[in-house]
Design goal:
378 residues; alpha/beta; Quinone Oxidoreductase, Chain A, domain 1; Rossmann fold; 2 domains; 7-stranded mixed β-sheet; 6-stranded parallel β-sheet; 8 helices; 15 strands; 22% helix; globular
Amino acid sequence: MNLTNNVIRFTDRPKRRPTAETFAFDSEMVRPLRNNEFLVKNLYLSMDPALVGRMRKEDNYAESVEPGDVMHAYAIGQVIQSNNKKVKVGEVRFGRFDMQEYAISDDIENTKAINLGLADPSWYLSLVGITGATAYFSLFDIGQPKRGETIVISAGGSSVGSTVAQMAKKVGCRTVAIVSTEEKAKQVIADWGYDAAVCYRGKSTEEPEKQLALACPRGVDIYYDNTSGDISEALLDLYNENARIVVVGRLGISHLPDTRLDTGRRDNNVILSKRIKKQGFVLLDYQSKIMGAVIQIAKWIKQGDLKIKEDILHGIDKTPEAFFRMLDGKNDGKQLVKLADVNHQLDPSPRWLGAHLISKRFPTGILALLISRTRTSM
């Protein structure tokens, strides 16, 4: 099988924010498979904020990508060749298959077959995958929302942010988004049902603070922090007693030479005086609880209570553009890159067809792989 693999390589560690020069296009021939290996044709690539952390040589929870390597990314791919008895040709699998058209792997623990009868393959990179599990556990385990409370969500139009907003609405919370532009503010209210939205781009710290005070007349009970950075200051005087701060992302400080150094005022005085809980979230900590989240998310989707919105660019050459759309908050829904369609002629067995949405066979493994260390090679 003579195949040319087009890839996106990571060139060098950015001193501040990643730039177009952080990536380089390359191509190479796909090598023959060794024992126990299988070859995947990538169908969808996922653009996630955590990719920024992988570019840094920092003490992080995820493996760093090395300069010259194919850039990391989670993906959905179809097995087109296999020397592994446990992996069938035609299976569609989730794993860290990276920014490339083809990937070779021998890892059957950290790449999982998905069921095409339950959902579109791309959904396994969003609401029934990493996005849904992140939103569910971070909101309900750490945020602990209650009816009548107010939750403020930074990056409110992101895939995780918009999912958190929908879940909080089900509980009966007032939802307020922090977004980049006035246009985005109008959009998230229309698309995701936010009660209010505040934009920050081109404004002083004081302006968003005044807007948030108007949007949160009863104060803030939960801050869902997708970004870190200066915008967090705007909430310091708005927290109610026993408020919760859920720290999920750091996109707002991706421009810093060392993303371990946050910016803004110290919040210890407010945390102490108002007995605020501030806690970080990493999905790996919730592997043993995945099934409960899967069942609940599946029910909400079936009931029409959770919406999925995707922003899809097409072709490997669009991958850097998709990455920066995600980084800049310009994406309208979960940011993906589509490389190919499923080849249904390769389907390995009838088990892919007609499964019920809340079947006990619902695959949970994909949700537990956010920070797996799957190795792929060519």
